[in-house]
Amino acid sequence: MNEEPESHLEVSITAEVEAGQYANFASVWHTRDGFVLDFAVITRPPQLTDDPQSGQRIVSVPTRIVSRIRLPPSQVFELMKALEQQLTAYEKETGHKI
User: Fold this and answer.
1) In angstroms, what is the C-alpha Rg of the chain?
2) How much is the pLDDT for 97?
3) Residue 23: Cβ-neighbour burial (10 angstroms; 0-12, 13-18, 19+)
4) CA-CA distance, 67 to 88, in Å (whole number)?
5) Mean pLDDT over residues 73-81, rounded?
């Protein structure tokens, strides 16, 4: 039998990336080739303004993208499973249901 050996990722991270980026907003969209996750931070308080195209009053929320992650479709389900596992663990540890 020719069994493939088990793979173990050896993950490293630079000091700059290790600190992370704060984001309080996320947008998820897709292209033909994959999924894109944009993480953003709200930069100023929302304000009431006029939409230049429609003329209607809207709430403008200024944001700045702090990180963009591109994933192949095959990894989206793995990410969803990992998020579900971590959310379940978080709720169990903290007693907070999200």
Assistant:
1) 19
2) 82
3) middle
4) 25
5) 95
